[in-house]
Write a structure and sequence with these properties.
The chain is an alpha/beta fold. It contains eight helices and seven strands. One of its GO terms (biological process) is methylation.
């Protein structure tokens, strides 16, 4: 389950270590789940992103949250805990092993009523959702970001925030395609397309933050945002 991109930070290793070790740790059982996942190399959001998400949720106080990519249920549980008791998280995953782990996490934390887990392909589930969501967190297959973006924006309320994780490919996203291993070139091309769209679209306000493998924060500035890619 090891994700090599998570172990190639895009900023100085000493600074990453400081962010992960010196910032306040997650308390209670959720913190224990985080610790166990990190010890076993299970892919969850790194601690610097955890702290940032805690702060962000505390500021925007979303009530209706959507997550694409449940994994073991850590980030959805984090959002449920820090968004407030009246917040609800809907999360999507297609991998049986992750779904099983997520259900175990929710049972362990006792937050099943605050989280709805939808099982299946996100592309199949999106049309069944109506939103609007105050906050969307996308941490799924990186090659799907550009494909999922229109649906995320449809479901996001005007003024809402879309947070997208792992956008820099361990800092290689700007490297020439010839220097990228062939097995990674499709992801590389699609991430570059995604970054171009979110950075240039007139109806989106975007901030890129070098936390973990990179985080994009996107605010929807119009009731309807149409994505048209140039050739």
């Amino acid at each position: 389950m090891r994700n090599e991109m998570m172990h190639r930070p895009v900023v100085k290793p000493e600074l990453v270590a400081y962010l992960r070790e010196e910032q306040k740790q997650v308390p209670g059982e959720l913190g224990q789940i985080q610790k166990e996942a990190n010890e076993r190399g299970v892919p969850i959001i790194p601690h610097e992103t955890v702290v940032f998400m805690q702060f962000l949720l505390g500021q925007i106080k979303p009530k209706k949250i959507l997550e694409i990519g449940t994994a073991i249920g850590f980030s959805s549980s984090l959002m449920a805990q820090y968004a407030g008791d009246d917040a609800h998280v809907t999360t999507i995953d297609r991998f049986d092993v992750m779904i099983r782990h997520a259900k175990e996490t929710y049972k362990r934390l006792g937050n099943e009523e605050q989280i709805t887990l939808l099982e299946g392909q996100a592309a199949d589930i999106f049309p069944t959702l109506t939103g609007p969501y105050d906050f969307i967190f996308m941490d799924s297959a990186k090659s799907k970001y550009i494909e999922f973006l229109p649906e995320c924006l449809r479901l996001l309320k005007k003024g809402g925030v879309l947070m997208v994780d792992d956008i820099f490919q361990a800092g290689t996203v700007l490297d020439p395609i010839e220097e990228i291993p062939r097995s990674q070139r499709t992801i590389h091309r699609k991430l570059k397309r995604f970054l171009k769209v979110i950075n240039t679209h007139p109806d989106l306000t975007t901030s890129l933050v070098p936390l973990g493998d990179g985080v994009a924060l996107i605010t929807k500035e119009a009731d309807e945002v149409i994505i048209v890619e140039e050739d």
